[in-house]
Amino acid sequence: MELFIDPDADRSVTRQLYEQIRDAILSGRLGPGERLTPSRAVSAELGIARSTVTDAYESLAAEGYIEGRAGGGTVVAGGHGSYPRSPPPGALAPTPRSAALRRYDDDPQAEAAFDLRPGRVDPRLFPAVVWRRCVLSGLRRVSAQYGDPAGTFDLRAALSRWLASSRGITLTPEQMVVTAGTGHAIDLVARVLLSPGDVAGVEEPGYPPVRELLRSHGVDAVGVPVDEHGIVVDAIPPAARLVYVTPSHQYPLGVVLSRRRRLELLHWAGRHGAAIVEDDYDSEFRHTTRPLEPLHRLDRDGRVIYVGTFSKILSPALRMGFLAAPVTLVPAIVAVRQAIDWCPPPATQEALTGFVDGGHLGRHLRRVRAAYTPRFHRVYRELLDRLPADYRPLQTHAGLHLAVVGPDTASQDDPAHALLRHGILVASLRRSYQNPGPVTGFLVGFGALPTEQTAAAVDALATGITALTGR
């Protein structure tokens, strides 16, 4: 441990050393058996006489805090209970704007018998062997210097080719920016396009982290209603400078933005001089119908910023994503990125480049689709069959979660908290609304649910709802 001396203190240097080491032992920072720095090294580091250090050590040994060990130097003795000190309250406070923000998932590491939260993926499907090989290969190529804030050119080129083949989007590497996921991409866009007091349109209900992110920038995130055709374009505030949408699989309800609405939204943005952020977070998982064209593909004016992530495709632990922006915005986005955290992790970029260019991403997607699609159909069928009569899953055709709605007369307590007592983790549908009113429901994610556990999980869910509502 580091030791410090204050030459102006009214206590001797020996006493200062004694108190620091004693306090470290009593607070648990030094545990039984941990070795103390030799007195000769301490005296050399602090520029004090060795006898000063040995005097302090002898006092600690005399009181039983430390002991000599043959061939092992001086170590902390056992038998002293630690008394961790509470941190000081602090004289600092967050701004009212940041203090008003809410976390979407209060405990991301929470565990239960069945984890049915959205956004989870099956870790057993992660291509660990291939990914490890790509990482090792990438480490041999990676530079030891800072990288390009936009990401390596090779990765951006690989991503542009992949999007062209998988989503029919024509992009150049110069339009691509590698990010740490969807939230990071939208943060960069907000910093470049919006100022405090600006208005942004977000889906209602929608993805709460994006709403909170925009508010952290002082932006007025106005909820725009969603119906069976997607976002209601006529309800977008005329003052909105940006509209955030999830057209391929609306979060959380699962509806698909119709082609007519897509064209209406593009025309609206052109008339009002606004930007559109298209979050295509899980369009790779289509279970029944063919996907509609991305907004970006229909865009003729350069108003759509396309955002994607590898959290659902590969793993949220990688923290890798991307955005595709009009070339007029890229220089500012890259400058902001450099100011925030300089560049994406070079080693991970090299690994992902090899993974994409080596054809592993395409093979992995075919494998996970073959696993998730039967799971989707089974979960949907089980929910229809086993839930109480007044609870029903909303129909959807894509993604890794389903929205379940209940009666408006149900308890206004958050069902997510109540179901946790029955060993089930779900996300609250109510928290997806800015003004929830009598909304009752929850989100059932099946990405991390083994197919063979589907019936047991839905049975537990139904039992929990029955206990909650008395139905």
CATH superfamily heading of the largest domain:
Type I PLP-dependent aspartate aminotransferase-like (Major domain)
Total DSSP helices: 15
Label the overall shape: globular
Compute the average pLDDT: 93
Tell me the span between the first and last alpha carbons.
60 Å
Could you list the spans in which at least 5 consecutive residues all have pLDDT below 50? none
CATH topology of the largest domain: Aspartate Aminotransferase, domain 2
CATH class of the largest domain, named Alpha Beta
How many extended strands?
Answer: 16
Q: Percent of residues in helical segments?
A: 25-40%
Overall number of structural domains: 3
Instruction: State the CATH architecture of the largest domain.
Output: 3-Layer(aba) Sandwich
Which features does this protein show?
8-stranded mixed β-sheet, Aspartate Aminotransferase, domain 1, 3 domains, Aspartate Aminotransferase, domain 2, WH-like_DNA-bd_sf, 14% strand, alpha/beta, pyridoxal phosphate binding, Arc Repressor Mutant, subunit A, 471 residues, transcription regulation
